[in-house]
Write a structure and sequence with these properties.
The protein has 399 residues and is an alpha/beta fold. The chain is built from 17 helices and 15 strands.
């Protein structure tokens, strides 16, 4: 059933709105934000709230703090709050706690159009423990709960599940970002335009077994790339040299190849090196990869074949880079596929994580129909995994 959205709330004027966003942005060694895509993705929801003369209390996790004040300093929400203020074009107040008297006082003082950012949720042990008492303190801060953190929807953290559960008499809706993610994914899963093509890359088959099984029941073709290629090749009895292989997943790879017979397409050729730090010695090989060599990207024949398949498709879902794209010498396959998708009139959906980072790095994100903000959440939703976080959101009644 469709979930209620902000648009289903008749009047937000004067309300305090607790918004769970996903500001888990990448940071450099000094703690500076290197990509603000996730902060920008929350702007439509936050702007809607502010335009409705309501105030926003923004909460998110950031990184994986360990409880050491010195080591955890880069994970404070200060820089994210500063960047949010710049993007909104208005002051943003940040408190140095997640719950407690100071937070409650700051929330109580909020005027319509004001924004308050809480400290990193993971600085409090109650967040990942799903603690009900901790959640109750957060729930008391606001009149409305908004889930706009698709990238965390598959988790059972307190801010995602226990907080809305502690607000049974208050509106609990999804924000514009989550609503868009669900709309796009539901379209993919129920009524995709055909031919429907999937492109799968990344390092591990093990991360995507359920995802691949689900896709194989829906798509017309699956193009394989990335390091997972070599596990599939090994499962077929092909030589993979020194390429990365998940030896303990060969039987699952064989099962997937059997399930996807006639649908799964493996690379025809490969860019290989003798050592990852020696790109000058790279060469292209077809078929088996020789002993002592490592596969790092799909080859030119494969690039041409995959781009041809993209040209025929009406719907394309892509998850996982097709080579070691972060190293320019090994990025040609991923870049070529991204460019083909950008030029395609098809419905193009890019899974989150590294795939989203790749299309951003190539400056092609705006040419895709949708770039998901969720990596693991994207995979699990397609697999059909129920999300407890979404179960806490009110259903929209349909006639």
């Amino acid at each position: 059933m469709a979930k209620k959205t902000l648009a289903d709330l008749p009047n937000l004027r004067g309300k305090r709105v607790l918004v769970r966003v996903d500001f888990n942005v990448p940071l450099d060694a000094a703690g500076n934000i290197t990509n603000d895509r996730r902060i920008r993705a929350a702007l439509p929801t936050l702007q809607y709230i502010l335009d409705a003369s309501a105030s926003a209390i923004v909460m998110s996790h950031l990184g994986r703090p360990k409880g050491d004040p010195k080591k955890d300093a880069p994970y404070k929400m200060d820089r994210a709050a500063d960047r949010l203020g710049q993007l909104l074009g208005r002051p943003v107040h940040k408190v140095n706690a997640v719950v407690g008297p100071d937070v409650a006082a700051a929330a109580q003082k909020l005027q319509p159009g004001a924004v308050l950012v809480l400290e990193n949720l993971r600085f409090h042990p109650g967040e990942q423990a799903g603690d009900a008492a901790f959640a109750a303190q957060l729930a008391q801060l606001a009149d409305v709960y908004v889930n706009d953190a698709f990238g965390t929807c598959h988790r059972s953290d307190a801010s995602m599940v226990a907080v809305p559960a502690a607000m049974p008499s208050k509106p609990r809706v999804v924000g514009k970002l989550v609503a868009k993610e669900l709309e796009i994914l539901d379209e993919l899963l129920s009524a995709p335009r055909r031919p429907f093509l999937a492109i799968l890359g990344g390092a591990k088959v093990s991360d995507k077994i359920g995802f691949i099984k689900s896709l194989l029941t829906r798509v017309d073709r699956v193009l394989i790339g990335g390091a997972m290629t070599y596990t599939f090749m090994k499962a077929e009895g092909q030589g993979v040299g020194n390429s990365r292989v998940e030896v303990d997943k060969l039987s699952q790879a064989r099962e997937l190849l059997q399930l996807g017979k006639g649908k799964i397409i493996l690379p025809l050729d490969h860019l290989v090196v003798e050592a990852l730090d020696k790109p000058d010695g790279a060469r292209v090989v077809e078929g088996n990869i020789p002993e002592g060599w490592i596969g790092v990207d799909i080859g030119p024949r494969t690039i041409a074949r995959y781009c041809e398949e993209i040209g025929k498709a009406q719907t394309v879902v892509w998850n996982g880079p097709l080579g070691k794209y972060e190293d320019k010498p090994y990025s040609q396959g991923t870049r070529a596929v991204a460019k083909a998708l950008a030029e395609s009139p098809a419905v193009t959906v890019v899974g989150g994580g590294e795939t989203a980072e790749a299309v951003e790095a190539f400056d092609l994100a705006d040419k895709m129909k949708h770039v998901s903000t969720g990596g693991g959440a994207f995979l699990e939703y397609v697999e059909g995994t129920p999300f407890p976080a979404l179960a806490q959101i009110e259903d929209r009644k349909t006639s």
